[in-house]
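Predict structure. Chain length: 241.
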Amino acid sequence: MAREIVLDTETTGFDPKTGDRLVEVGCIEIDDLLPTGRTFHRYVNPDRLIPEAAIRVHGITDEKVKDAPRFHEIVDDLMEFIGDAPMIAHNAGFDRNFIDAEYVMAGRPATDPDRWIDTLALAQKRFPGMPNSLDALCKRFKVSLADRTFHGALIDARLLAEVYLELRGGKERVLDLSVSKKAAVAVSGPIVMGGRDPRPNGLAPRSTPDERERHVAFLQATLKDRSLWTAYGLETETTPA
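Prediction complete.
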């Protein structure tokens, strides 16, 4: 795995071809399925009124973005942050349509469709026939929605990064990689019954020398060549009892 960008947008509607515009974009950088801590977030003035239906979803009002930059003013910063990394989005076609439309209006080339990874498609493949909205996946993977009142580009990108980690099996990988070298050596060492380390020295015998001598004499007289110790050449030694 390598550097990837988890991306989400909020818009004035559903279709840039009918005049809808982007009002917010949020990105999270991940590297080898781990967030790096680097983010990109901007509100954008869409140069049009935001419908009430859209405001009910994301809570972004005309007043909130009236002094925000236009997209052409942030496009270079956004493109620099994304670089040549793959872009991850939920229902990626929606976000790609808006990003591409804004890029083209700002005089930039549209993105390569092959750079986009759709987490909705990943979820549908893994959970066919089940609800696979971002909310549903967060609940399924026990990703907290406590901080989310409205949909927001950066908030949703953070949630999606956690969901993407789960979809890629990243938590197991993180756990594997978190094993220290010392622990790895311990794991690869000899197995000790009961989880205890072997004693460095044997315990001192609790029998007396006289008891041990009488024990050997008993074995020699009673078991003779059937003695367990005979096989080890110990029949004449004072073996601890």
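Summary: The chain is about 40% helix and 15% strand.
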